[in-house]
Task: structure prediction
Amino acid sequence: MAQLCGGGVTPAINFGRLCLKQWWKSGSICQNIYIRNVSSLVVGEPDGPSVKTSIPGPKSKQLLDELSAIQQTGSVQLFVDYDRSIGNYIADVDGNVLLDVYTQISSLPLGYNHPDLLKLLDNPFNVKAIVNRPALGVFPGSDWPKKVKNILLDVAPKGLSHVTTMMCGSCSNENAFKNIFIWYRKTQRGENIDFTEDERSSCMINQSPGSPPLSILSFKGAFHGRTLGALSTTHSKYIHKIDVPAFDWPIASFPEYKYPLEEHKSENEAEDRRCLAEVEDRITEYNKHGKNVAGVIVEPIQAEGGDNAASPEFFQQLQRICKKYGCAFFVDEVQTGGGPTGKMWCHEHFNLDSPPDIVSFSKKMQLGGYYMKEEFSPSQPYRVFNTWMGDPGKLLLLQGVLSVIKRDSLLSVVQKSGEKLLNGLYDLQKEFPALLFAARGRGTFLAISCTSTKLRDDLVNRLKQKGIQSGGCGEYSIRIRPALIFQTQHAEIFLDQFRQVLRETK
Amino acid sequence: MAQLCGGGVTPAINFGRLCLKQWWKSGSICQNIYIRNVSSLVVGEPDGPSVKTSIPGPKSKQLLDELSAIQQTGSVQLFVDYDRSIGNYIADVDGNVLLDVYTQISSLPLGYNHPDLLKLLDNPFNVKAIVNRPALGVFPGSDWPKKVKNILLDVAPKGLSHVTTMMCGSCSNENAFKNIFIWYRKTQRGENIDFTEDERSSCMINQSPGSPPLSILSFKGAFHGRTLGALSTTHSKYIHKIDVPAFDWPIASFPEYKYPLEEHKSENEAEDRRCLAEVEDRITEYNKHGKNVAGVIVEPIQAEGGDNAASPEFFQQLQRICKKYGCAFFVDEVQTGGGPTGKMWCHEHFNLDSPPDIVSFSKKMQLGGYYMKEEFSPSQPYRVFNTWMGDPGKLLLLQGVLSVIKRDSLLSVVQKSGEKLLNGLYDLQKEFPALLFAARGRGTFLAISCTSTKLRDDLVNRLKQKGIQSGGCGEYSIRIRPALIFQTQHAEIFLDQFRQVLRETK
Result:
């Protein structure tokens, strides 16, 4: 199997794939060239990564200096040559080409410069969709109803007939909260009861009863965004929250499983029960104190919080608890939605009794928004509203993305690559038990835990030097978030390089 | 002067402009054709509106039925044929062409299908900026530092050296609040003092001291967005706020002037003093109760709240009060920014002692964001952050917009058209004192009050039937928000049609 920057391996045929390797000495840095893999889904992809400088390289460092004069840049890793990036490969300004298993924090469904997306803008009608941005809530274009139906609703979670478009994940969750509060108050007040004068006037000064002290229950380790409402349901890292005022909303424990799952079945079932009991306790407690829990928001896999999974049974029970207490069951699929788990929506893996009430999306879906049951749509206009209400230019891109997903059967590609990746991670954690544990996930939405934060950060950095762009999540996990065009040959390269890095770990 | 749909006026030369009129009877509806005005800034613009059906017409109504099955559509006015809209004219799906003085809730700087913007996407490099959307906070493109500098900072308010890009107005304000809270706590804590363990752990469960009960002061009638933090500073209409939880943050009165201003000088000065005293009272009160006021957010002209203006002296004093109490002075230019007041930023009209601390933008600027003083930039990364952090595709459009603003001297166009419009409104309120009063504004950012809400709604509707797309704001005002390419000949058409509608008012 192909190895990069690793030893004196000569060209070899492995798994039916020809890997040619050349060394380009440039200081202590090497470059590798693979012969094109004919089955790549994106024409023009290189056959492997090539690293020419340390990363960030000198040009990235220079640009960082420039940008630091005008922005906070502590999070910048490198500067990208988007012109030269292609498919699964991200090219930086120093001429390095990395296999990207992080894909812009999991937001690129088809990798870089996918020809089908570039082609979209050959069409002058589509160019106009970019230039003439409407206030969709007031002046939608002639094609908007058809597009919402044929694009967004065509891939809607089963049972959710309504959709609201937004711009990003945080906005989507915040506005979905508003839908939930409006729905909850309608059920309290009675369907056709009008607002009281007291409600109308008190809300104008942020006071009850017009601005009621309703709450949304969220989970420890959750990430639902960073605007002030969404941030009150985010509990992944203190640096996201410190110094920012928050709503006093209830928080319950999310299951922390022992791995491998099959060896800890009864402990993990007990963990589910513990967390679900906590959910009920919190709801009861907050309802009692007049901060009624209008909804429960949950990720199908906690992503930023460390790729924490919970069992289908946990989600089934959680939905039943929501029904019992009259709370909306809100599944945040901003990171899991759009295919990376091998299904369009991760909650499809859970065999729920009935559809969730609300499912939000963004990232791979190109624009933000949320699906919901009809009963969650407010009766009055202007309650969930803003100037743009999404962006037809992004829906256009999503249309292109979804047609490629269908044509190229990308959900099957994800399932196949995911299986290879996960099995590879199982092998690696067996091979390096002092370094890795708890390989987990669905599809290519995968993670593995490292035995310390320092080790995790070190591995992610050294992977980069081997031509792999990955990312961290939680305290000590590495997350794998490739594009949907990530194939088994890409998985092989990743696993090879990862093994090499682990071997070199002291 | 040209008149549409109004009487038996024959073609006439007025103000040096030839207006030809023809009637196309279609039931009781008429169509008008003007000969092209040679000096239009956008080639291909018609010379006047033409109305063929009642609005919304039958095709708009049919599309509304379709969309209502999947979205809340109570706010939709008509469906637009964006393909056929051009310059200052919006075409609907029923073949009506309206002069647009509302421009997608004031968000279109160059009207529809501006050739310079369409041309941008002939360039394959620019197409890639649309398709390869980066996570800008981590993997910015090679051209990002230069673009931020040459585009965004080139038009920055004087004295503000840093900029953060976002997606929309609400997100911009919410994230600016976070910058303010972080800055405020830094000044309380001391520059290089690290967070305590108590702060780190308490913020994870939304509790003090990590999530401190800091506040942002806002004004009655203000509109700063609709996500939960921003909504806590919005006080324009109850329907925006009712049933949604809010932070208990202080609210002060915004001046309500008597018009005409020159006749009520001393009363209005007293009104300034009353409101400013209230600001000081609120700050003192909230500080005393441990809900320290970290910042004050204010619109240079309250837009959604009814186009409420305040004097330069009011803003000068307000900034001094912020200095006195150590609050950030935050000017929200989401609607006023980008040129419509005849200056790039409306607060440039105020002759402030020093630059505001933060200025937010969106709408005409194509993407959201905020400028700030360097001291407001957080020392640590990931505190103000999200996946996309703006959108290079929108910055590209802004680049096109700003270069047309410069080339075509659009700020001068705005000043000239604004003068004509405002003088025309003064004439109309003299002519129809039982219907209109308080014509006001800066540049083409103008409004006039109607003597009742019912009359306002009626006038806006009938203006539409005369070929003018306008909008309401506050309880009883009509707001005028044309694009920056709105010229004096467009102002004439608007004023003619408005006069006609007023004449027909019983």
Q: What stands out?
A: The first strand of chain B starts at residue 12 and ends at 14. Confidence is low (pLDDT under 50) at residues 1-38 of chain B. Chain B touches chain A through 127 residues (CB under 8 Å). The longest helix of chain B spans residues 265-288.
